[in-house]
Input
Amino acid sequence: MAEESFYGVTLTAEDNSETWDVVDEDYSRGQKLVIKQILLGAEAKDNEFNVVEVTSQKDTVQIPIAVLKAGETRAVNPDVEFYETKVTFKLIKGSGPVYIHGLTIKDDVEVVDMEEEDDEDEAEDVEIEHPKKRKIEQNADGKNAKNQKKK
Amino acid sequence: MAEESFYGVTLTAEDNSETWDVVDEDYSRGQKLVIKQILLGAEAKDNEFNVVEVTSQKDTVQIPIAVLKAGETRAVNPDVEFYETKVTFKLIKGSGPVYIHGLTIKDDVEVVDMEEEDDEDEAEDVEIEHPKKRKIEQNADGKNAKNQKKK
Amino acid sequence: MAEESFYGVTLTAEDNSETWDVVDEDYSRGQKLVIKQILLGAEAKDNEFNVVEVTSQKDTVQIPIAVLKAGETRAVNPDVEFYETKVTFKLIKGSGPVYIHGLTIKDDVEVVDMEEEDDEDEAEDVEIEHPKKRKIEQNADGKNAKNQKKK
Amino acid sequence: MAEESFYGVTLTAEDNSETWDVVDEDYSRGQKLVIKQILLGAEAKDNEFNVVEVTSQKDTVQIPIAVLKAGETRAVNPDVEFYETKVTFKLIKGSGPVYIHGLTIKDDVEVVDMEEEDDEDEAEDVEIEHPKKRKIEQNADGKNAKNQKKK
Amino acid sequence: MAEESFYGVTLTAEDNSETWDVVDEDYSRGQKLVIKQILLGAEAKDNEFNVVEVTSQKDTVQIPIAVLKAGETRAVNPDVEFYETKVTFKLIKGSGPVYIHGLTIKDDVEVVDMEEEDDEDEAEDVEIEHPKKRKIEQNADGKNAKNQKKK
Output
């Protein structure tokens, strides 16, 4: 489902920050970044802690997400998702290298909604309800649907 | 599907408890908290156990969910879910810091049901069954459907 | 989807066995227990093995599912499921405490089938096939569908 | 979805091989074995490697899938799937015991296709397309659909 | 869903590279490789790092994905996906053996779209919208749909 890509970035003492963002303001809905693994490189110094902090703009959260140390913890598997938000990873302790692995997923939500509008015109003569349209709104546009109801 | 957000909280000796709850009583159905990783901070004391206990109000369960110790266990990945309930995490042993990572998910179940009611009015002239409506009730409202049947 | 609850139980030398079962014979289909994590408590003795054995009644399997030891293996993540069966966990070695974490899931399969029957009556005048109904049977009731076909 | 069962087998020096196979040639499609955890028993010898090799007949692959050693690696979580194929697990190094945990899943794919044929007959008078049927074929019978197209 | 196969390859000092690619240019959409586990063999040398680097052609990413060392890290579980792209794994450090385990998945996306065209012809007399067709385009062909809209 949807369009997905491998996500892989490297943090080091010199290049200690990396930011991911949704790609297009108009079609930003449904995009997310999933972080599967954070891995300490073979070149990391012995007994040095390497700490990666994440900042999620929409969720206004800033928190360490990986604490790695050669000889103790080589990798963690957070398996967390950042949905429709700008995200920054920063190596706040240690000199790395630290590798961050995951996926980016785009759902192309808005496009589908607009095509469904066309269906409504075609079908209005026979007055049969649009079973899939409700389902799609539920999945993709739950927040807007809720707001409209309260008007 | 649904609306989701990153969940990240920090427990320390001074701030040793954190509670998550569903956000709105009327629309509380379909909300859940998923805990993916519990991680011991780099500042944790050597050989000190750090134990996080979870209390799930609806399930009336109180149990340790993470036992962490520097040099032995830096992180656990519980991957458990708390569904439609108030949940409290407490650092009952150790001075932390301990980081809890996960997701909160809202399904906006009720809103969809109300829109489906409108569909029923529009479509009653042609008497064609609502295939998606049954599916949605099955997924989102199984408990109520069961109760109604028993009347 | 479905109704789910957090599952958490503690095994110790004194209270070394715990059984989970489906809740209602008539509506037992679609119920399952998912075991996500088995965790050794901070109070466990050094160098003592703690072994949890699982017995799945329907699958007639009895096998250790967790082997834990302080200083070596604090937690395992089996991520296995027990579907429509009685399950017993027993601490067969060690004095614990051992914590078992997971989810119980109810799909309310039977209820949906009965509602679909009503749809069939309503719709038979217009002779339009029931697209969702077949899908629901496939997902929820594959076994029965198979039996009926053989008659 | 589908019918699933817990899968648990034990390998030892004396009983070092175990084979899983699809259960019925006519209805073998959609069956799979998922391996979630491979765990070294408490009785395993210190510093002895225990290696489990898997042979997947359809995929013609033979490869170690678990390398376990007391004091170093007590468990691995492969989370791999063997789909519509005979699979053999063999303890090629070490004396065990080694426990293999997972799930077997049956989708009952063929049965659904045959029921859909009946729908086609019932509905042909009104000439309304079968929206769900295409979806089911896509999911369950993609390979056959492809072959038919090439004729 | 879809057709899937077990993926297992071995990297050694002599045979240190392995490439996976989509199988047919015309039907390459919807194909992906999922990497679940990377495991160090029992024959690996003590205290030698074994590093596997991945190159994803479409995503133009080249990054280490596993850092393994006997006595410290026997296995990692990246759980990442490579979607519609050529992927190369290379043992850039150490002599192995290293085992890579996962799944390959084919969705047969194009075939379904072409069958849906036929449905359109059959159904045009009754002018009922095609609820599933939009859904399938959303899932499988979101990128193309987006491009067409902008024309």
